[in-house]
Amino acid sequence: MCFSAAANFVGSAVLGAVGVVTLTKVKHKRELLFASLPTLFAVHQFIEGFVWLGLDGVLSPGVTHKMGAAFMLYAQGLLPFLIPLGVLLFEPNQKSRRRMLPFLALGTGTTLYMLWALIAYPMQIFVKNHSIVYINDGTNNTVLAVLYVIATCGSLFFSKIRDMVIFGAANLAILLVVMAVKRYAFTSLWCAYAAGASVIILAYFWKSQLKRPFPYGEAIWG
User: Is 131 helix (H, G, I), strand (E, B) or coil?
Assistant: First the structure.
C-alpha cells in the first residue's frame, strides 16, 4: 500500500469491505466508534490516492494540497483523539473505562495542538523513494511524536479486551519498523500499515458476537 495511486485505491476498497463487515457485527452504540476505524482508514487511504494523482501531475497543485491537508488532518489531527475515545466507550466496565481517561485527555490535548499547527504552519508534500513525505514544522518533532504514540497505542495496551491489546502491539511494532526504515515517510507508511492491521478489529468483532454487548449500565456518560 501507499506506493502509488492504484495501490491506495485498491487498499481502500479492501479496507472498505473489511469496514462494512465489521460494522454489521456491532451490537451496541458504544461499539460504533471503534468498529468504524477500518472504514475511516479506508477513506483515509482513498484520499491519499488523490494525493498520488496530484504528485503524478494528473490533478492540479491546489487539489493536491487540499487532499494532502485532509490526509494529515486525520492522520495527525484526529487519530490521537478518536482511538482513546473509541476504546473508552467500548470498555466493558467502569473501572476499565476510567483507565482510559488519562489517554483521552492526552489525546485531546495532542489533537488540539496538532490541529492548530496544521493551520498555522505551511505543509510540504513530495515523493521520496516511492513514498509520500508530509512535512509540517509544527507537528514534526520528537516530543509530540511520543505523546501521539502514548495516546494512540497506550490506550489500547491498557484495554481489558485482549484483541485491543493485540491491535495496539501490532501498531506499535509497525511504528517502530517504519521509524527505523523510512522515518521521513512516517505519516504515510504508518497509517497504511496500521490500516492493514484493522483486520484484527474485524476478527475480534466476528469472534466475540456471542459475548457482546457488554453490560453498560454503570457506564460513564450513560
Answer: strand
Which sign does the torsion angle of CA 55, 60, 196, 157 carry? positive
Residues with Cβ within 8 Å of residue 91, at least 6 apart in sequence: 97, 99, 100, 159, 160, 161
Q: In this structure, are residues 53 and 16 in contact, taking their beta carbons and an 8 Å threshold?
A: no
Which residues have CB under 8 Å from 183's CB, separation 6+? none
Q: So what's the pLDDT on residue 2?
A: 52
Its pTM stands at 0.87
Residues 6+ apart with CB under 8 A from 112: none
**Residue 167 near residue 201, CB atoms below 8 Å:** yes
Residue 210 identity (one-letter amino acid) = L
Q: Cis peptide leading into 122, omega within 30 of 0?
A: no
pLDDT averaged per 10 residues, the chain (length 222): 79 92 94 93 92 93 93 89 94 90 96 93 89 89 87 90 88 79 74 78 90 71 49
DSSP output for 17-81: HHHHHHHHT--SGGGHHHHTHHHHHHHHHHHHHHHHHHHTTSS-HHHHHHHHHHHHIIIIIIHHH
